[in-house]
Amino acid sequence: MPRWMRDRHLAEDVEADLSRADPLWPGQLATLVALAIYFALPTQLTIGPQWPIPVTELLVLLALFVGTRRGVSGSRRRAAAIALVCVAVASNLVALALLSHYLVAGGNTSGSQLIGGGALIWTTNWLLFAVLYWELDRGGPLRPPGDHRPVAPDLLFPPMSDPDFAPRGWMPHFLDYLYVSLTNQTAFSPTDTMPMTPRAKIAMGLQGAAGLVTVGLILARAVNLLG
Questions:
Q1: How many domains does the chain have?
Q2: Rg of the chain over CA atoms, in angstroms?
Q3: Range of the domain at 68
Q4: What is the 3-state secondary structure (H, E, C) of 3-58?
Q5: How many Å apart are CA 175 and CA 203, to the nearest integer?
Q6: What is the pLDDT of residues 9-21, one digit of tens each?
Q7: For the chain, what percentages of helix, strand and coil (3-state, to nearest 5) are there?
Q8: Is residue 6 part of a domain?
Q9: Which of 130-144, 166-180, 193-207: highest mean pLDDT?
Q10: How many secondary structure helices (H) and strands (E) does the chain include?
């Protein structure tokens, strides 16, 4: 397992409850929607045909779903899921780079096409980074059976800062990570949830920069063309 993906374990005597017990279907559904959006991207924004990357990742996603049903170990499932999301993120960032280059090079296209392409890239990034945070934080949505070692959180949620105001037994779920991804991408920086580990900081920084480029360069140019 790559070093950046390894969890940091806390001391055994730490009393904080940092457990996770999420169903897998929200993350699988978000990944599936993001892959479906890839098919809607203009051909100018993909390297080669559109279908190989999303179809390959769809097969991997299906294999993960079947493997989970058949009892594949949580660590193997998680490693494959993170790899799948990283490939999808890289493909989407390549599409953003190609669209940015297309605009800077003076390509002729309508403002509505630019807004559509930018919106697809923005939405895909939002969903994929939400899944990435969900898989990375606290050892992933499902901890391996028998592994009770406390894992250092990658993200510091507000209820963790002031547990007196948090419901008893509070733990983040997929909707929380979807919200974190949304606020980070719209504000171009963390808002109420702070990154605690280098990998979380890198991911949030990359997402914020991509969101800034999408909104600032692409959508602003498209609105200017429409005006």
A1: 1
A2: 19
A3: 22-143+151-159+169-226
A4: HHHCCCECCCCCCCCCCCECCCHHHHHHHHHHHHHHCCCCHHHCCCCCCHHHHHHH
A5: 18
A6: 665 545 456 667 7
A7: 65, 5, 30
A8: no
A9: 193-207
A10: 8, 2
Averaging pLDDT over each range in 71-80, 116-125, 148-157, 179-188, which range is the top one?
179-188
Does residue 17 lie in a domain region? no
Average pLDDT over residues 155-170: 76
Band of pLDDT at residue 217, cut at 50, 70 and 90: confident
- Spatial neighbors of 2 by CB under 8 A, at least 6 apart, are none
Nearest to 133 by CA among 75, 181, 168: 181
The structure tokens 């028998």 sit at: 146
Query: Would residue 109 count as lying in a domain?
Result: yes
